[in-house]
Design brief:
- There is one protein chain.
- The chain contains 12 helices and 23 strands.
- It has 607 residues and is α+β, with helices and mostly antiparallel strands.
- Among the domains are: 130 residues, DnaJ domain (Helix Hairpins); 168 residues, no CATH class.
- It has a 17-stranded mixed beta barrel. A 4-stranded antiparallel sheet has the order 19-18-21-22.
- The longest helix has 41 residues.
- It starts with a helix and ends in an 18-residue tail after the last strand.
């Protein structure tokens, strides 16, 4: 087996190969295997085709191709059943995947017992985990660059500033940096360093922290750190999970020129969606704070109250999850140190990057704050607009910047981002074109093997008004609902079938007149209508959560690395239904929630 085949097999979802849930019982697995084996057995493919196409001159070629495709599909099906029907092999697969199953087979071939194989494999996994931990370096940082644009907003400030500089740009008023780095030594131990630095008005200060963290058990951990720089201190913290819902911590510290201190912390899950905390700082500067966080639906609210010798007050925030990528936030602070209102939003651009902006009104003035989070690195840029707060300026601050940002996002940022994403997608599709073509050919071959059974099921269901899959598509497409009667399943839908040109053909030298033309790029989706109809049983169809759709019979991954959806348009009791779900999500057909409105209903012409 080649490396590519081996990697493909390792990544294949065996539960999807049989079309069962991950918690399926042994009887369900056996029934699914027998059903698929009856359709995919290689001996049955040529006989079916000869019975149907006796007068076709291409029968021999078709039979050979069908047999080869059936052999591959049946081999994958048999391997899936062999693993999932064996309790020990299934447990190994659930924990470690096919790599773990193969490792167990290799050890078993040498005559070792099951316990010896388990110990050997666990030792190998521990070694791999240790090597991965040694190679991993967790790094995060926060970088704050404060600017002032007050001279652009206030004439009096501009006149005073003109005596020092004529630079028309923003003034850099402060810089604050913090970097932390954690190095895992083992599964229980880790060392970390933190560097802090800040400068404002020509003066600066900084600290360096070196710490060690150890997990003695899943319930108890110890953290010891030493700090030097502007402030010298030593801290030791013991954290313990006291009960299922309660965690406590005791922190002892010594701060130079201040003395010894003690801090007691308690966190508890008050209700299913509510968590509270209590912190008592005994010294050297006494204070106490308490608060709670509550989540409800797409909302979350946090409120803390603190009282102490240094400062007292109330602070918190309200968060609203608008969709998967956008979050709105309102934060507030009110106390002896001042008052502040922070209103803004954050958008998740991709898996690693989030952008945010907010308007801040405080006793120091009106500010516009930008944030960028990227792979553990956080950049914050607050820009002081004016130190003099009035209701007119506050109104303008809360209206003009959001409008400007919305316009820039709609007319500038979004088109640029869409072009960038589109360019990356096209480049990835071109790079993976050969792999995609092979996968789609295999899916097409699998669909041909089950086409007769699927069509027979569809005809019978159509006659009795049962579940009929009219059209189904899996891949990358616009997931918004269809609102036009008789519209195609997705915009610009086109069918695809294998071309006569093999993606691996290279018998003719490139550049010669007889050289084969490159295979055309397939669409980023695959037609799975027959594949789903074949899976229908007793007028029901269930696709299970966390079972890879790409590995279902007749499916493939037509666009690796892209977000994929499944859209199914079906009839049940003669009425049209349609549903769109994300890849690997759970879906059950039929459902009254999927029924299309009356204005989109059509009469089935095949009845």
């Amino acid at each position: 087996m080649s490396r590519a085949d081996d990697a493909s097999t390792s990544a294949r979802d065996l539960y999807a190969a049989l079309g069962v849930a991950r918690d399926a019982e042994a009887d369900e697995i056996k029934r699914a295997y027998r059903k698929l084996a009856a359709a995919l057995h290689p001996d049955k493919q040529p006989r079916r085709r000869r019975d149907r196409d006796d007068d076709d001159d291409d029968d021999d070629d078709d039979d050979a191709g069908a047999t080869e495709a059936a052999q591959r599909a049946f081999a994958a099906l048999s391997e899936a059943y062999e693993v999932l029907s064996d309790a020990d092999a299934r447990r190994t697969y659930d924990a470690y995947g096919m790599d773990g199953v193969r490792a167990g087979r290799e050890l078993g071939a040498r005559g070792k017992t099951t316990e010896e194989m388990r110990i050997e494999y666990e030792r190998r996994r521990a070694k791999e985990t240790k090597e991965a931990a040694e190679a991993r370096l967790n790094h995060s940082g926060t970088y704050v660059f404060g600017f002032s644009a007050a001279h652009l907003m206030e004439e009096s400030i501009a006149r005073r500033r003109a005596a020092f500089t004529n630079n028309p740009g923003l003034d850099l008023t402060s810089v604050s940096l913090q970097n932390s780095m954690e190095i895992p030594l083992s599964e229980e131990d880790a060392v970390y360093t933190v560097t802090q630095g800040t400068t404002r008005g020509g003066r600066g200060a900084g600290n360096f922290i070196l710490g060690w963290r150890r997990a003695f058990s899943p319930l108890t951990s110890l953290d010891v750190s030493a700090q030097t720089g502007q402030t010298s201190a030593v801290t030791a913290t013991v954290t313990r999970q006291l009960t299922t819902h309660t965690t406590g911590a005791v922190s002892h510290n010594y701060i130079a020129q201040q003395g010894f201190g003690l801090q007691l912390m308690l966190q508890r899950q008050l209700f299913a969606q509510t968590r509270g905390h209590l912190t008592w700082n005994v010294g050297p500067v006494s204070s106490m704070s308490t608060g709670a966080t509550h989540a409800f639906g797409k909302n979350a609210v946090k409120c803390d109250f603190s009282v102490g010798l240094a400062a007292s007050g109330l602070n918190g925030h309200f968060i609203r999850q608008m969709d998967e990528n956008r979050v709105y936030r309102v934060g507030w602070k009110l106390g002896t140190a001042g008052a502040e209102l922070d209103v803004g939003a954050t958008k998740q651009v991709d898996e690693d990057t989030a952008l945010g902006a907010s308007i801040v009104v405080s006793l120091r003035g009106l500010s516009l704050r930008f944030r960028v989070n990227r792979q553990g690195q956080r950049f914050v840029v607050p820009i002081l607009l004016t130190p003099m707060v009035t209701w007119r300026k506050s109104l303008l601050a809360f209206t003009l910047p959001p409008i400007a940002i919305a316009l820039l996002r709609h007319f500038v940022a979004r088109p640029i981002m869409n072009r960038y994403i589109r360019k990356r997608q096209l480049a990835a599709r071109e790079k993976n074109k050969r792999t995609i073509l092979v996968a789609m050919r295999e899916a097409h071959s699998a669909t041909k093997m089950i086409a007769e059974t699927a069509d027979k099921k569809a005809r019978a269901a159509r006659e009795r008004g049962g579940l009929v899959i009219e059209s189904a598509v899996f891949g990358a497409f616009d997931p918004r609902r269809n609102t036009v009667k008789d519209a195609p399943i997705i915009p610009n839908f086109r069918t695809w079938s294998p071309s006569s040109q093999s993606p691996n053909a290279n018998s003719t030298e490139e550049g010669s007149p007889d050289a084969p033309k490159p295979a055309a790029s397939p669409p980023p989706y695959v037609d799975v209508t027959r594949a789903l109809q074949f899976m229908v049983d007793n007028d029901t169809l269930d696709l299970y959560e966390n079972v890879a759709m790409c590995d279902l019979l007749g499916f493939c991954d037509p666009c690796p690395g892209e977000d994929k959806h499944l859209r199914v348009r079906y009839r049940y009791r003669r009425a049209l239904h349609e549903v769109t779900v994300k890849a690997d999500a759970m879906v059950s057909l039929p459902s009254a929630d999927h029924r299309l409105p009356e204005k989109l209903q059509t009469i089935d012409p095949r009845v």
